[in-house]
Amino acid sequence: MKTQRYYSHGKLLLTGEYLVLDGAKALAIPCKYGQHLEVSSTTANKSSWHSYDYQDKLWFSAEFNLAEVITHKVKGENEIEQRLFQILREAYQLNSKIFHQNYNFKTELEFPQNWGLGTSSTLITNFAQWADVDAYRLLYNTFGGSGYDIACAQANSALSFRLKQDAPEAQNIDFPEALIPFTYFLHLGKKQNSRSAIKNYRAQKPSDLETKVEEINKLSEAFLKVTSFQEGQNVLKQHELLLSEILKLNPIQSREFPDFDGQIKSLGAWGGDFVLVLSQTNPRDYFNEKGYATLLTFQDMVL
After folding, report:
1. Helix, strand, or coil here: 273?
2. In this prediction, what percent of the chain has a pLDDT beyond 70?
3. 8: helix, strand or coil
4. How would DSSP label each residue in 75-134?
5. Domain limits of the chain?
6. Is the Cβ–Cβ distance between 299 and 29 less than 8 Å?
């Protein structure tokens, strides 16, 4: 078998974080940064897995007999290996035909792992393509989540995403042109665990959930209709205040950047990874002075 190659884009969730799990309409964007997967067959009695980071440094490797993995004869020596074996077993359950021999697998990231752009979702999507299985089902059976990141992985534009009776629905959208010159993405340097964040949300879920979902839907729709900086700032501020009420957490701007002239909005799990910044002037000096060095423009980040 010739080497087979696959590629998936990273993602950022613009609106609807957390409530997307309960049917809210979320807006998301695929990123210019993603992950590659290469697969080739081998006549060896073991499969190999090698994962490289964005600096081409090996950060994980393993050797295993694929037949022993899918029959639960080996469990994995550490958390990463255990998670990998879980993906292999779940893919086998969805399509056993391709697991008749051993393979050499190689992954290559284009972004730092602590950026939170979807190390797991890009892996799941790439692996699902190779194994010829449904990427959403593979995600739900392993990492869990809404699946918006799977939609982003193969998208070529911003999109809206919604779960309807556990069925994912994604549609292409246009990011508001009026906001593109003023949009930046700031990395906070605090990697968040999505599974832990979801668990916290479940514990805080409001009693008037349907009302909150409808409010999020209206804000997502309003964002798509934004025609000025001021409109965009207002919509994102309303969104932050609504999530703050639900999660019982203070918005990142009031906590860390109360003197910032513009609007800052959390993306995905609150408290870390990237935030969206709306600013009418380049805010790089402001964030540098506060010790935040990674600031990307819209053109730098968005596909």
Report:
1. coil
2. 96
3. strand
4. --SSHHHHHHHHHHHHHHHH--TT-SSEEEEEEEESS-GGG-S-HHHHHHHHHHHHHTS-
5. 4-171, 175-301
6. no
pLDDT per position as a tens digit, 17-68: 999 999 999 999 999 999 999 999 999 999 999 999 999 999 999 999 999 9
Residues in the chain: 303
Upper half-sphere CA count for residue 81 (Cβ side, 13 Å): 17
Find out if CATH 3.30.230.10 is the number for domain 4-171. yes
Domain pair 4-171 / 175-301, same fold? no
Compute CA distances 205 → 62, 130, 146, 151, 161, whole Å. 40, 37, 16, 25, 20
Is residue 225's pLDDT more than 70? yes
Task: Please give the model's pTM, rounded to 2 decimal places.
Answer: 0.93
Instruction: Write the CB contacts of 296 (distance below 8 Å, at least 6 apart in sequence).
Output: 184, 185, 187
What letter represents residue 43's amino acid? T
The rounded distance, in Å, linking the Cα atoms of 215 and 70 is 44
Looking at residue 302, the DSSP 8-state letter turns out to be B
- Measure CA of the first residue to CA of the last residue in the chain; give whole Å: 32
DSSP 8-state class, residue 250: -
d(CA 224, CA 218) in angstroms, rounded, equals 10
The one-letter code for the residue type at 217 is N
Pick the CATH number of 175-301 from 3.10.310.30, 3.30.70.890, 3.90.79.20, 3.40.1010.20: 3.30.70.890
Three-state SS for 37-85 is: EEEEEECCCCEEEEEECCCCCEEEEEEECHHHHHCCCCCCCCHHHHHHH
Closest CA to 31 of 286, 262, 273, 282: 273
Task: Give the number of other Cβ atoms within 10 Å of residue 2's Cβ.
Answer: 7
